[in-house]
Specification:
The structure is a homodimer.
Chain A lengths: L1 E7 L3 E6 L4 H8 L17 E9 L4 H6 L2 H5 L2 E3 L5 E8 L26 E7 L11 H11 L6 E2 L1 H13 L3 E7 L3 E7 L7 E7 L3 E8 L5 E8 L9 H8 L3 H26 L6 E8 L1 H8 L19 E4 H4 L8 E4 L9 H10 L8 E5 L4 E7 L2 E7 L20 E7 L5 E5 L7 E2 L1 H14 L16 E2 L6 E5 L11 E4 H25 L8 E5 L8 H6 L11 E5 L1 H11 L1 H13 L1 E2 L6 H9 L12 H5 L16
Parallel strand pairs in A: 1-5, 7-9, 10-13, 13-15, 16-25, 18-27, 19-21, 25-26
Antiparallel strand pairs in A: 1-2, 3-4, 3-5, 6-8, 8-9, 10-11, 11-12, 14-15, 16-17, 17-18, 19-20, 22-23, 23-24
Chain lengths: 635, 635
Amino acid sequence: MDCEVRFLPEGKRSTVPEGSTIMFAAIESGVDLSNICSGKGYCGKCIVEVLNGELSPLTDQEKKRIPPEKLAKGYRLACQAHIAGDVVVRVPDQSRAGRQRLVIMGKEPPVTLKQNVEKVYVELVAPTLQDPMADDERLLRALAEKGYGGLKADFIITKELPKVLRKSGWKATVTILGKKEIVNIQAGDTKTQNFGVAVDIGTTKLAVFLVDLTDGNLIFADGMMNPQIRYGEDVISRINFATQGEKELKEIQSTIIGGINELICKGVGETAIDAQDLYELVAVGNTAMHHLFVGMQIKSLGLCPYPAGLGRAYDIKSREMNIAINPSGNVHVLPNLAGFVGADAIADILASRLHEKEKLTLLMDVGTNTEVMLGSRDGIWSCSTASGPAFEGAHIKCGMRAATGAVEKVKITPEFDVTYKTIEDEKARGICGSGIIDAVAEALKSGVIDTSGKFILQGHKRVKGEGAAKEFILIYKDETSTGKEDIVLTQDDVREIQKAKAAMYGGYATLMRKAGFKKDDLNEIVIAGAFGNYIDPSSARTIGMIPEIPLEKVSFLGNTAGSGARMCLKSLDKRREAQEINDKMKYIELAVEPIFEEEYINAMYMPNSRLEEYPETVKGIRGPMNVRRYVRRSV
Amino acid sequence: MDCEVRFLPEGKRSTVPEGSTIMFAAIESGVDLSNICSGKGYCGKCIVEVLNGELSPLTDQEKKRIPPEKLAKGYRLACQAHIAGDVVVRVPDQSRAGRQRLVIMGKEPPVTLKQNVEKVYVELVAPTLQDPMADDERLLRALAEKGYGGLKADFIITKELPKVLRKSGWKATVTILGKKEIVNIQAGDTKTQNFGVAVDIGTTKLAVFLVDLTDGNLIFADGMMNPQIRYGEDVISRINFATQGEKELKEIQSTIIGGINELICKGVGETAIDAQDLYELVAVGNTAMHHLFVGMQIKSLGLCPYPAGLGRAYDIKSREMNIAINPSGNVHVLPNLAGFVGADAIADILASRLHEKEKLTLLMDVGTNTEVMLGSRDGIWSCSTASGPAFEGAHIKCGMRAATGAVEKVKITPEFDVTYKTIEDEKARGICGSGIIDAVAEALKSGVIDTSGKFILQGHKRVKGEGAAKEFILIYKDETSTGKEDIVLTQDDVREIQKAKAAMYGGYATLMRKAGFKKDDLNEIVIAGAFGNYIDPSSARTIGMIPEIPLEKVSFLGNTAGSGARMCLKSLDKRREAQEINDKMKYIELAVEPIFEEEYINAMYMPNSRLEEYPETVKGIRGPMNVRRYVRRSV
């Protein structure tokens, strides 16, 4: 039996089989509802108010995640409650992903054009009875005379050749891909119409760039939330969804392609170019996003030893993927080093020029997984570290994504007064990644917590609760958007941030030791990723998320994955460089690395139990130095 | 409004829009109905008896083509009568194409295997945390170690790679196409499962061969009528249909592919191989059939100067054409020299080894268009000549295809008694090509007609009518299948045969003169084509269809187009040879060749007005030598 679920306030209706979850109905009807843990009931972010209708009994997860007063009012977790009849629910503001602040631009070094797509104008002699040479040979002969020999026309171009040549009066422009394949033939001289697309497929966001391939200029850039988010906000959730079967893999693939096509169409509309003149698309993403885009089987990405299915750079005929560019065009995906260091990391390196640096540089692309790359022109070491979704607001009591009303900056005075700034200066709804890092750093400096992360402030009006439930009120409820609940930093929140930053620092420190570098060798830190752009480097250094070097040596490049994709779109040399970087880069799998365990545990302290690594930072910390150094015996 | 047409005796029903022709309804419902002239009303072969229902008024063509007594009984031409309501018609035996005698086999010289498709068995080391190399690189590395470097996997193989490698326990067989592309990966060792398909797309018939590519053995061969016949029996009719629009082109293309797939499936069933192990299909056909198979725009084939759209050999991914072999497999089509000398002619040359002959040889592939090739290892000249559909039974009063009951051999004694043989020794239904050639040759030798083709026999009981309607009764009606009408040779029939054979000889003689050869240079005649197999060489020589050389120097190779396709399937060297033949062969367009006009007119006499070309033949002719030599002034 089918049941109807009505979502308020938007009034959207979704008809789904009895027994479906409310989350399923929300996904079906496109209702914006947080789904961070992908329906497992862990994150507790999908709370909805049930106004009417029958549902399955409360689950243990619901009893644990929903506050008692809300439970009493009939609130449920959308991912846990199964429908037993027609239902009406209200989606509270806090349960929505909201308008996300999307940073799609990133720094891009100058690139000398060396396109994969060329356009050549030819004038043919029409056939006569004395010269009845076939159309294909006539065209190939003319192209060979212009220096383009050994070509083969794509099948769909070949089929249309007789018609197009005659319609054009034997004067036509031929588009050549990779000096090998004819992918278009157009009447007249259309040499100036040659465009390409660069795509960065982030786990959270999707960015699409249109580039004029005749001069390399960016003519359109836009982004959206990765529409795959409906299948779970983290990579593992999506791998789990995609490995359920062929149908699910196709569904999640066509979801991302649908999003890309939507942005391409928008760009084509705004720039008034012909989508047929988009001949190439270069895509980057982490290995999982890359594989889901291509439609690769990805079960192995989720299983130790996590090898990538597709490691080398790869080219695919665009019509095989239903990409909304010329159907004979080319889709190029950059190489993946490993299951968790993917094409986006290669793009980061290209755009940050890490592989050209004279001195040792740390490059981190901060996200749910943080790719850590350490090196210079002499070689690059890399690893991926599960920094977790805490920076995206998950597992944080008042956490939220970097959307409207999120607290993004926090200061705590020695008197424990708090000042803060929200995104778009709206009333505070919650706290996002950069705000959390600030809050923890400020709590440490002001003595709310000690270097072990433990709450030490006693008897202050901002401090409530006991033990793990202890919390520091950042913003009183009357200042918030709902006016109902304080925005707080809890003991558990601090633990989450400690784990996240320890993972990142642990990755860095492991690479340093594996490669044999010393603290002073490090000359520069480059933070990539849309998220990274908003972090206060001082706070990041205070909590020990990044090593201690002068702040002027820390820079933020923004979405360099997108920059790297554009660079490879414009230049075959950059594609070659990308493959070379991939082939030469060393990968350390932290899961089997005892050094990582040691460094991770030491980095659980703030800034670190190795105080000698942070001589400047420790001077600014008010509370006691509560640290214990850990060295694993077997190392 | 839709109307229903019911066809008797089979009882098939077809619902079609009011105003459709009966022929359209027959095509729609798959009723077997002759359609030689493609609905123009010329051939008069689609006579049906209307039992019930309303139709459009009689057309001029119908009044001309339907005998008065049948007109009176309500017989109509199916292609001319438009439906004005529900109709019931009966399709007489004579209006059906019938069970066609299909010759699909042809002589094939031995070929050294040099396959385009190779299978390689590899055992990979499973990935570990210490060696997490990506699946694609792991596979490519193992293949490179076996000497297969620089490969790229087809997109659909790449996508499945992680699953297949794990399922196979890292022991798999990789199929490599053209030493470049991985087109399959299978668990375990499947090296012995490697098959291919050769296809000969004749205008009339379709032949499909399955070949074991590990040893070159033919494992299945079968044929059927080319299902495109429903769009007209000759090439021009089909070009006309296909050039109506994209829809029609796709329809006629999918019709031939449907036929090929049907035969492939039959072969797969009978041989119990896996269609996934069919990796390559090599197809030949005349230029029009070739282009319709590929789905090429072919309007230009019907317009002077008739250039081919696709001249070079061409490879197409099988899934792009919906061919029922492995979707990553390859479809290879042989080159076409010109609009009317196509891939089938190149295949004929390969199979007949014309390009290796020491002495001058004439190769003719006899059909509605006859390809004439003259040459040796020193070079080949070629032309195509419109020998017309007379040999297929069209434009011949009692003509029919080589189907059950067709008269295929005829002798006329000096007393004008007639002996004959029918196909499958059934009662005579009509006369097919080889029978017509015999009949004309025997009529000439016995003195029924003179060398100009004129009826000269007077006052004999077998001779009826006057002038152009004069006819010689070959078989009295009481001996025929219907018992209703005599089977005759008419004055007009003789004229049709004269035109057909003059076209063929004219082509040969033009090539001889253009190439500068003399009569005695010709050492051998090879007749190819399914039809050619049944011609009596003596009769062909008597009427001057072929030049006079000793009969032991005339051979029939059967369907060499199919043989050539098989050779190219087995050997890349043969494909190279095919392209070389195509590149080197000279083509003479007879339409602009004054010599052809002269030779054609002289060849309208039987054997020829140049009696010195047929010294032996003329001795056997009883009637007077009524010839007049023609020499075009300007030549």
